[in-house]
Amino acid sequence: MITSLLRPFNLEAAAKGELLCSTVDSYIYEFIASGKPDVYGQNVTCRIVDVKDPSVRHCVGTLVLKDSNHLRMCPLCWVEEKPVYKGDKLYDTSACENRGIVIAEGYEEGDLLVKGYGAHYIGYLSWKQPKVKKTGWVNISSAHAGRKICSRVFETKAQAEKCQSRNHLACTFIEWEE
Q1: Rounded distance between C-alpha atoms, residue 174 and residue 178, angstroms
Q2: Nearest to 152 by CA among 137, 169, 162, 141
Q3: What is the band of 121 on the pLDDT scale with cuts at 50, 70, 90?
Q4: Which stretches of the chain are DSSP H helices?
């Protein structure tokens, strides 16, 4: 785990039940209470949560941390070697026609729970917007000094043929990605 990518300790989020992880050990913690800040940072009392199934919240032990600088917010999961937190926006790269932006809400049994969809397989999520394949028709015309130019892109060949100029050479089908 690359701890530098994890979000810093947030007392409000921890008090609302978001899990914590440590930069010095492999435990996952649940916030219980906080004490007065001192020179080392926020005093935090945490319960150690079972790493195998954080949803069970099985208490393994309780710990008082004198230095909250060793705590980070625990991500829901990792996608493309980056942590995913509640509210993060990712792109659905699956082949389904409803793909687009999804918003993370939780994590359950290997799937990210996303707003409006429920469980979503992590392998179909990306931080990068997927390229969209597009097609169309263009008119190629002659210009000054033998140069060739093309017009705007039309959805159908019939639309392109209606808009041919008097210097028209060809009507061509094109494909590209955006």
Answers
A1: 13
A2: 137
A3: confident
A4: 11-15, 157-162
